[in-house]
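Lab notebook, bench 4. We co-purified these components, and the gel suggests they stay together. Before we commit to crystallization screens, I want a quick structural picture of the whole thing.
Request: model the full complex, all chains together.
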Amino acid sequence: MRKAENRDMSPTNTVLIDSHASATLRYIRSSMEAATAFAVPGSAGIAMGVVGFLATALSLMPGFAARWLSIWLLAALIAALIGGVLIIRPASIRALALSGTPVRRFALCLLPPLFVGAVLTAVLVRYDALDAIPGTWLLLYGCSLIAASVPTTRTLGAMGTSFMMIGLITLVIPHNMQILMLGAGFSGLHILFGFLISRRSYGRET
Amino acid sequence: MAAKPNLRMTPAAPRKGPKLTSITTARGESEDGKFDRLVYERVRLGIMSALAVREELTFTELKALFNVSDGNLSAHARKLEEAKYLVCSKTFEARRPKTTYRLTALGKGALNRYLDHVEAVIKATRRG
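Here is the predicted assembly.
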Protein backbone atom coordinates (compact mmCIF):
# COMPACT_ATOMS: atom_id res chain seq x y z
CA MET A 1 0.00 0.00 0.00
CA ARG A 2 2.73 2.41 1.05
CA LYS A 3 4.71 1.37 -1.95
CA ALA A 4 1.83 2.30 -4.23
CA GLU A 5 1.46 5.65 -2.49
CA ASN A 6 5.14 6.34 -2.88
CA ARG A 7 4.89 5.56 -6.54
CA ASP A 8 1.98 7.97 -6.91
CA MET A 9 3.96 10.75 -5.30
CA SER A 10 7.07 10.21 -7.40
CA PRO A 11 8.15 12.82 -9.96
CA THR A 12 7.65 10.21 -12.71
CA ASN A 13 3.89 10.49 -12.26
CA THR A 14 4.04 14.25 -12.60
CA VAL A 15 5.75 13.79 -15.93
CA LEU A 16 3.06 11.29 -16.92
CA ILE A 17 0.27 13.77 -16.20
CA ASP A 18 2.15 16.45 -18.09
CA SER A 19 2.70 14.24 -21.12
CA HIS A 20 -0.90 13.07 -20.90
CA ALA A 21 -2.11 16.67 -21.12
CA SER A 22 0.34 17.38 -23.94
CA ALA A 23 -0.96 14.33 -25.81
CA THR A 24 -4.48 15.69 -25.40
CA LEU A 25 -3.45 19.01 -26.90
CA ARG A 26 -1.73 17.19 -29.78
CA TYR A 27 -4.88 15.17 -30.36
CA ILE A 28 -7.04 18.30 -30.47
CA ARG A 29 -4.63 19.90 -32.91
CA SER A 30 -4.46 16.81 -35.13
CA SER A 31 -8.28 16.60 -35.16
CA MET A 32 -8.49 20.22 -36.25
CA GLU A 33 -5.82 19.72 -38.90
CA ALA A 34 -7.51 16.59 -40.22
CA ALA A 35 -10.84 18.41 -40.44
CA THR A 36 -9.35 21.18 -42.57
CA ALA A 37 -6.82 19.10 -44.50
CA PHE A 38 -7.05 18.62 -48.22
CA ALA A 39 -6.05 15.22 -49.53
CA VAL A 40 -4.03 15.14 -52.74
CA PRO A 41 -3.90 11.66 -54.26
CA GLY A 42 -0.50 10.32 -55.33
CA SER A 43 -2.07 9.10 -58.57
CA ALA A 44 -2.39 12.75 -59.67
CA GLY A 45 1.36 13.20 -59.32
CA ILE A 46 2.11 9.97 -61.16
CA ALA A 47 -0.25 10.84 -64.04
CA MET A 48 1.24 14.32 -64.33
CA GLY A 49 4.71 12.76 -64.28
CA VAL A 50 3.81 10.49 -67.20
CA VAL A 51 2.64 13.53 -69.18
CA GLY A 52 5.94 15.23 -68.28
CA PHE A 53 7.87 12.19 -69.48
CA LEU A 54 6.09 12.21 -72.84
CA ALA A 55 6.74 15.95 -73.20
CA THR A 56 10.44 15.43 -72.42
CA ALA A 57 10.75 12.59 -74.92
CA LEU A 58 9.01 14.61 -77.62
CA SER A 59 11.06 17.75 -76.93
CA LEU A 60 14.29 15.81 -77.24
CA MET A 61 13.42 14.44 -80.69
CA PRO A 62 15.39 16.30 -83.37
CA GLY A 63 12.29 17.15 -85.39
CA PHE A 64 10.44 18.65 -82.44
CA ALA A 65 13.28 20.30 -80.49
CA ALA A 66 12.48 23.76 -81.88
CA ARG A 67 8.90 23.44 -80.70
CA TRP A 68 9.74 22.56 -77.10
CA LEU A 69 7.84 25.53 -75.72
CA SER A 70 4.58 24.62 -77.48
CA ILE A 71 5.00 20.98 -76.46
CA TRP A 72 5.51 21.88 -72.79
CA LEU A 73 2.67 24.40 -72.75
CA LEU A 74 0.35 21.74 -74.15
CA ALA A 75 1.71 19.19 -71.66
CA ALA A 76 1.11 21.64 -68.80
CA LEU A 77 -2.49 22.06 -69.89
CA ILE A 78 -3.06 18.30 -70.19
CA ALA A 79 -1.30 17.59 -66.87
CA ALA A 80 -3.33 20.28 -65.10
CA LEU A 81 -6.56 18.79 -66.45
CA ILE A 82 -5.63 15.24 -65.50
CA GLY A 83 -4.34 16.32 -62.08
CA GLY A 84 -7.46 18.38 -61.45
CA VAL A 85 -9.79 15.52 -62.34
CA LEU A 86 -7.88 13.05 -60.16
CA ILE A 87 -7.88 15.44 -57.21
CA ILE A 88 -11.56 16.31 -57.52
CA ARG A 89 -12.68 12.74 -58.25
CA PRO A 90 -14.78 11.77 -55.25
CA ALA A 91 -13.14 8.98 -53.33
CA SER A 92 -13.46 7.85 -49.74
CA ILE A 93 -11.98 10.34 -47.30
CA ARG A 94 -10.96 12.74 -50.02
CA ALA A 95 -14.59 13.59 -50.63
CA LEU A 96 -14.55 14.86 -47.08
CA ALA A 97 -12.41 17.86 -47.89
CA LEU A 98 -14.01 18.82 -51.16
CA SER A 99 -16.28 21.47 -49.84
CA GLY A 100 -15.71 24.87 -48.38
CA THR A 101 -12.56 25.90 -46.58
CA PRO A 102 -10.04 23.13 -47.45
CA VAL A 103 -10.51 23.46 -51.22
CA ARG A 104 -10.38 27.24 -51.00
CA ARG A 105 -7.19 27.13 -48.94
CA PHE A 106 -5.56 24.66 -51.31
CA ALA A 107 -6.46 26.75 -54.37
CA LEU A 108 -5.35 30.00 -52.71
CA CYS A 109 -1.95 28.48 -51.92
CA LEU A 110 -1.41 26.68 -55.22
CA LEU A 111 -2.67 29.10 -57.84
CA PRO A 112 -0.94 32.49 -57.31
CA PRO A 113 2.61 31.27 -58.15
CA LEU A 114 1.20 29.40 -61.18
CA PHE A 115 -0.49 32.61 -62.35
CA VAL A 116 2.81 34.48 -61.96
CA GLY A 117 4.49 31.71 -63.97
CA ALA A 118 1.99 32.17 -66.80
CA VAL A 119 2.51 35.95 -66.83
CA LEU A 120 6.30 35.65 -66.71
CA THR A 121 6.24 33.10 -69.54
CA ALA A 122 4.40 35.60 -71.74
CA VAL A 123 6.88 38.34 -70.80
CA LEU A 124 9.92 36.13 -71.42
CA VAL A 125 8.56 35.00 -74.79
CA ARG A 126 7.94 38.62 -75.72
CA TYR A 127 11.55 39.56 -74.91
CA ASP A 128 12.86 36.37 -76.51
CA ALA A 129 14.44 35.17 -73.26
CA LEU A 130 13.37 31.57 -73.80
CA ASP A 131 16.36 30.15 -71.92
CA ALA A 132 14.99 31.61 -68.69
CA ILE A 133 11.62 29.88 -69.05
CA PRO A 134 12.41 26.31 -67.85
CA GLY A 135 14.16 27.52 -64.69
CA THR A 136 11.37 30.01 -63.97
CA TRP A 137 8.73 27.32 -64.38
CA LEU A 138 10.52 24.91 -62.07
CA LEU A 139 11.13 27.60 -59.45
CA LEU A 140 7.58 28.91 -59.43
CA TYR A 141 6.04 25.44 -59.49
CA GLY A 142 8.22 24.62 -56.49
CA CYS A 143 6.94 27.77 -54.71
CA SER A 144 3.40 26.74 -55.53
CA LEU A 145 3.90 23.26 -54.08
CA ILE A 146 5.55 24.55 -50.91
CA ALA A 147 2.59 26.90 -50.36
CA ALA A 148 0.13 24.09 -51.12
CA SER A 149 1.84 21.85 -48.59
CA VAL A 150 0.35 23.97 -45.77
CA PRO A 151 -3.23 22.64 -46.09
CA THR A 152 -2.13 19.24 -47.41
CA THR A 153 1.01 17.34 -46.50
CA ARG A 154 4.68 18.01 -45.81
CA THR A 155 5.61 15.63 -48.62
CA LEU A 156 4.33 18.23 -51.05
CA GLY A 157 6.65 20.76 -49.42
CA ALA A 158 9.64 18.44 -49.90
CA MET A 159 8.62 18.01 -53.52
CA GLY A 160 8.40 21.79 -53.94
CA THR A 161 11.85 22.27 -52.44
CA SER A 162 13.27 19.70 -54.89
CA PHE A 163 11.60 21.55 -57.78
CA MET A 164 13.14 24.83 -56.61
CA MET A 165 16.61 23.30 -56.38
CA ILE A 166 16.33 21.89 -59.90
CA GLY A 167 14.98 25.26 -61.05
CA LEU A 168 17.99 27.12 -59.67
CA ILE A 169 20.37 24.75 -61.46
CA THR A 170 18.34 25.02 -64.67
CA LEU A 171 18.72 28.80 -64.74
CA VAL A 172 22.51 28.51 -65.11
CA ILE A 173 22.95 25.57 -67.47
CA PRO A 174 22.91 25.51 -71.33
CA HIS A 175 19.54 25.30 -73.05
CA ASN A 176 20.00 21.77 -74.45
CA MET A 177 20.29 20.48 -70.88
CA GLN A 178 17.37 22.54 -69.65
CA ILE A 179 14.88 20.19 -71.32
CA LEU A 180 16.40 17.31 -69.39
CA MET A 181 15.97 19.28 -66.18
CA LEU A 182 12.35 19.98 -67.07
CA GLY A 183 11.97 16.23 -67.50
CA ALA A 184 13.75 15.52 -64.21
CA GLY A 185 11.33 17.85 -62.44
CA PHE A 186 7.96 17.54 -64.11
CA SER A 187 8.39 13.85 -64.86
CA GLY A 188 10.86 12.40 -62.35
CA LEU A 189 9.83 14.31 -59.23
CA HIS A 190 6.12 14.00 -59.99
CA ILE A 191 6.37 10.22 -60.36
CA LEU A 192 8.70 9.78 -57.37
CA PHE A 193 6.63 11.88 -54.97
CA GLY A 194 3.39 10.53 -56.45
CA PHE A 195 4.50 7.05 -55.40
CA LEU A 196 5.58 8.28 -51.98
CA ILE A 197 2.26 10.03 -51.38
CA SER A 198 0.28 7.01 -52.61
CA ARG A 199 2.21 4.69 -50.33
CA ARG A 200 1.65 6.89 -47.30
CA SER A 201 -2.00 7.54 -48.16
CA TYR A 202 -3.06 3.95 -48.58
CA GLY A 203 -0.68 2.46 -46.06
CA ARG A 204 -1.18 4.40 -42.89
CA GLU A 205 -2.59 7.89 -42.91
CA THR A 206 -5.85 7.69 -44.87
CA MET B 1 -3.22 11.75 -47.46
CA ALA B 2 -4.62 14.10 -44.90
CA ALA B 3 -3.39 12.76 -41.59
CA LYS B 4 -6.20 11.39 -39.55
CA PRO B 5 -6.06 12.12 -35.87
CA ASN B 6 -4.15 9.38 -34.17
CA LEU B 7 -6.62 7.98 -31.73
CA ARG B 8 -3.86 6.22 -29.83
CA MET B 9 -2.44 9.63 -29.05
CA THR B 10 -5.66 10.58 -27.30
CA PRO B 11 -6.04 11.02 -23.59
CA ALA B 12 -4.73 7.82 -22.11
CA ALA B 13 -7.10 5.32 -20.57
CA PRO B 14 -8.22 6.92 -17.32
CA ARG B 15 -8.13 3.69 -15.33
CA LYS B 16 -4.38 3.24 -15.77
CA GLY B 17 -2.01 5.88 -14.43
CA PRO B 18 -3.00 8.99 -12.50
CA LYS B 19 -6.43 10.44 -13.12
CA LEU B 20 -6.45 13.84 -14.73
CA THR B 21 -9.53 14.74 -12.73
CA SER B 22 -7.96 14.15 -9.38
CA ILE B 23 -4.82 16.19 -9.72
CA THR B 24 -4.24 19.32 -7.77
CA THR B 25 -2.42 22.37 -8.98
CA ALA B 26 0.76 23.71 -7.41
CA ARG B 27 -1.43 26.05 -5.37
CA GLY B 28 -3.33 23.04 -4.09
CA GLU B 29 -6.56 23.88 -5.87
CA SER B 30 -8.54 20.96 -7.10
CA GLU B 31 -9.40 21.08 -10.77
CA ASP B 32 -12.39 18.75 -10.36
CA GLY B 33 -14.98 21.49 -10.54
CA LYS B 34 -13.76 22.77 -13.89
CA PHE B 35 -13.42 19.44 -15.61
CA ASP B 36 -15.96 18.47 -18.23
CA ARG B 37 -16.24 14.70 -18.44
CA LEU B 38 -18.39 14.97 -21.53
CA VAL B 39 -15.63 16.59 -23.56
CA TYR B 40 -12.87 14.41 -22.12
CA GLU B 41 -13.82 11.27 -24.09
CA ARG B 42 -11.56 10.98 -27.12
CA VAL B 43 -14.16 10.67 -29.91
CA ARG B 44 -16.30 13.47 -28.49
CA LEU B 45 -13.22 15.65 -28.05
CA GLY B 46 -12.26 14.91 -31.67
CA ILE B 47 -15.76 15.75 -32.94
CA MET B 48 -15.79 19.04 -31.06
CA SER B 49 -12.25 19.95 -32.18
CA ALA B 50 -13.07 19.21 -35.82
CA LEU B 51 -16.28 21.24 -35.64
CA ALA B 52 -14.41 24.13 -34.05
CA VAL B 53 -12.53 24.67 -37.33
CA ARG B 54 -15.24 23.62 -39.80
CA GLU B 55 -18.60 25.34 -39.87
CA GLU B 56 -20.35 22.01 -40.25
CA LEU B 57 -19.51 18.38 -40.89
CA THR B 58 -21.75 15.56 -42.01
CA PHE B 59 -22.12 12.25 -40.23
CA THR B 60 -20.21 10.51 -43.05
CA GLU B 61 -17.37 13.01 -42.88
CA LEU B 62 -17.00 12.60 -39.13
CA LYS B 63 -17.16 8.83 -39.45
CA ALA B 64 -14.35 8.84 -42.03
CA LEU B 65 -12.35 11.35 -40.03
CA PHE B 66 -12.29 9.34 -36.79
CA ASN B 67 -12.69 5.87 -38.25
CA VAL B 68 -15.53 4.92 -35.91
CA SER B 69 -18.64 2.84 -36.47
CA ASP B 70 -22.07 4.36 -37.16
CA GLY B 71 -23.38 3.32 -33.76
CA ASN B 72 -20.37 4.62 -31.88
CA LEU B 73 -20.46 7.98 -33.63
CA SER B 74 -24.18 8.49 -33.25
CA ALA B 75 -24.00 7.62 -29.54
CA HIS B 76 -21.26 10.17 -28.94
CA ALA B 77 -22.95 12.80 -31.11
CA ARG B 78 -26.24 12.25 -29.26
CA LYS B 79 -24.55 12.88 -25.92
CA LEU B 80 -23.09 16.12 -27.20
CA GLU B 81 -26.45 17.06 -28.67
CA GLU B 82 -28.20 16.39 -25.37
CA ALA B 83 -25.71 18.68 -23.66
CA LYS B 84 -26.52 21.28 -26.33
CA TYR B 85 -22.89 21.32 -27.44
CA LEU B 86 -23.92 20.34 -30.96
CA VAL B 87 -26.90 20.94 -33.18
CA CYS B 88 -27.90 18.32 -35.66
CA SER B 89 -29.88 18.89 -38.84
CA LYS B 90 -31.30 16.14 -41.00
CA THR B 91 -31.94 16.75 -44.69
CA PHE B 92 -32.17 14.74 -47.88
CA GLU B 93 -29.64 14.91 -50.68
CA ALA B 94 -30.38 12.93 -53.84
CA ARG B 95 -33.04 11.05 -51.85
CA ARG B 96 -30.47 10.03 -49.26
CA PRO B 97 -30.67 11.24 -45.68
CA LYS B 98 -27.90 13.61 -44.72
CA THR B 99 -27.09 14.42 -41.11
CA THR B 100 -25.09 17.56 -40.47
CA TYR B 101 -23.56 18.69 -37.19
CA ARG B 102 -22.60 22.17 -36.03
CA LEU B 103 -20.93 23.31 -32.85
CA THR B 104 -23.05 25.63 -30.70
CA ALA B 105 -21.78 28.62 -28.71
CA LEU B 106 -22.18 26.47 -25.61
CA GLY B 107 -20.04 23.77 -27.23
CA LYS B 108 -17.35 26.27 -28.19
CA GLY B 109 -17.32 27.52 -24.63
CA ALA B 110 -16.99 23.98 -23.28
CA LEU B 111 -14.11 23.22 -25.65
CA ASN B 112 -12.36 26.46 -24.68
CA ARG B 113 -12.77 25.65 -21.00
CA TYR B 114 -11.38 22.19 -21.61
CA LEU B 115 -8.38 23.64 -23.45
CA ASP B 116 -7.81 26.07 -20.58
CA HIS B 117 -7.98 23.17 -18.18
CA VAL B 118 -5.42 21.09 -20.10
CA GLU B 119 -3.08 24.09 -20.38
CA ALA B 120 -3.45 24.70 -16.65
CA VAL B 121 -2.51 21.07 -15.99
CA ILE B 122 0.64 21.42 -18.09
CA LYS B 123 1.61 24.69 -16.40
CA ALA B 124 0.92 23.30 -12.93
CA THR B 125 2.93 20.12 -13.47
CA ARG B 126 5.85 22.05 -14.97
CA ARG B 127 5.90 24.46 -12.07
CA GLY B 128 5.87 21.52 -9.70
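The CA atoms of residues 39 and 94 of chain A lie 6 Å apart. Worth comparing against the SEC data before the next meeting. Residues 1-10, 91-96, 202-206 of chain A have pLDDT under 50 and may be disordered.
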